[in-house]
Amino acid sequence: MERDYKDNIRVLIKKILKLIIFSVIYLILGFVIALLISKNYNKELADILTYEGFILMLIGVLTSMKGNPSGISISGTGRQDHSIHSYIDNEITRQERENRPYHKEFFKNNVTEFVFANVTFILGGILILILSYILGKI
Fold first, then answer.
1. In the chain, what percentage of residues exceed pLDDT 70?
2. CA distances from 120 to 6, 15, 42, 127 (A)
3. Are 59 and 121 in contact (CB under 8 A)?
């Protein structure tokens, strides 16, 4: 039991270390790209870093969402047999919820659940925004 606990801690530490390493890599890449853009187009470095930080955070948020769409589908919209497609989609969702109780484990079956691996984009964007704030104050 204690060995499993130590293994879980090691795995978590490795994940956090990877998160920090990749976030710093995104920070360095963003800084190099911002330097190139600011030299070629005579723009302020802090402004470019701000834009890059927001873009990277937005990409991180959008790519880190996963989950169950709760049976909502618009695949049959505009077709002559759209009602049968909607009926089939609803029936499949009902059968899935009977086999796997949806409301009992709502937070586990939530529509938006964040993936740990893509948090590196968000953290990299935050680091770039912090760097742009620091450079803007100088």
1. 72
2. 24, 11, 30, 10
3. yes
